[in-house]
Specification:
mainly alpha, Non-ribosomal Peptide Synthetase Peptidyl Carrier Protein, Chain A, 5 helices, 57% helix
Length: 87
């Protein structure tokens, strides 16, 4: 997956937890939880949705640092296997 596809997948996962969020208004470099007002349970549900969507488990030690869409996309890109032709 390329960065745009990963971002779209993360936004799909977010929409499962917070369907009222307007993805067009999100700023990729700002803390996501503050932008969409996710509490800790919603954040955990989002991480579960990321796992279901991308098949990636975000370790607890990483989850606190992955607070923006940019950081989440970067981390997912580093974790996800790449296939020929994906960029």
């Amino acid at each position: 997956m390329n960065r745009a596809q990963l971002r779209a997948a993360l936004l799909r996962a977010l929409s499962e937890v917070a369907p009222e969020v307007d993805a067009a208004r999100l700023v990729d470099h700002k803390p996501l939880r503050r932008q969409v007002d996710l509490d800790s349970v919603d954040w955990l549900n989002f991480l579960v949705a990321v796992h279901q969507t991308l098949g990636l488990d975000i370790p607890d030690a990483q989850a606190a640092r992955l607070d923006t869409l940019d950081k989440l996309v970067d981390w997912c890109a580093a974790q996800a296997p790449t296939s020929p032709g994906s960029a």
